[in-house]
Write a structure and sequence with these properties.
alpha/beta; 7-stranded parallel beta sheet; 11 helices; 12 strands
Length: 322
Amino acid sequence: MVPIKLLVLSNPAAHHLRLLDHLKESADIQVGNTPEFINAHAPSADVILVGSYEGDLLRTAFPLAKHVRWVHSLSAGVEKIVFAELAECGVPLTNGRGVFTPALAEFAIASILYFAKDLRALVQNQQAGKWKQFDIELIQGQTLGIVGYGDIGRESARLAHALGMKLVAVRRNTALSDQDSILDRVFPPDALREMLALSDFVLVTTPLTPETRGMIGEAEFSAMKSTAVIINLGRGPVIVESALIAALAAKTIRGAALDVFDEEPLPEGHPFYRLENVLLSPHSADHTVGWADLATRLFLDNFERFRNGQPLRNIVDKKAGY
């Protein structure tokens, strides 16, 4: 059998790529991230594997890859790699959806507890050598509103339900949640503000698409409770950053836990660094130990499916963007 030509757009030194050794008998593997490498190997590629941060390289490689039959992204988010030529052609795109779900759901719960138990105050008092008692909140009975009820949203809801929280969600197709026993209520996108007004904590996990870009702005923050906390684990531009900063600075909402931002790395001197009501993660909420290995193993499973003519996992709707 002729080996499948696998083009890997990545830093060749990436440690997780050692797992591709499992494919040596069935694939001709070429790994690189330079223009010269792409020009040399893209024209013969059957499969393209896109490293987590190598979306720009695909734009260069894809027009040259006249024989490509499948593209896979190690990342779950694909907004940086879906461009017109890829979206409009018949080549399937798959992604790392599901690999990062448990880690992100755990971070969502950690963020809720961080604010409910005021862990910042505990650390500050300990560092200052102060014995200062204060009241903390139960999250049991409080309402978690979820914007984007996909894999991450559902797993977060499952954990929150186990802790006694009430659950509401916004999703594009509300009928998909008709049989969801843990949701108290589901809202269509045009009822977002109504859901926000009910929520003590708001978890944003929606992918970035033209429809979701800027969907939470000044009007949405005005609809939220003054005691509410927003948690963004989706993509930074889903929230209007200037509106969020204004709401946090004026304390018209209680706080925010943020793992994603408009610009990454977050620039030095950015207001988020100094706002005391912000829990800031440098886009590492899904970086569990061995996270890249997990993403690569998902690709290996899909590669076997591709090689054997079986349906691929995690097919992306390229027009919808997720």
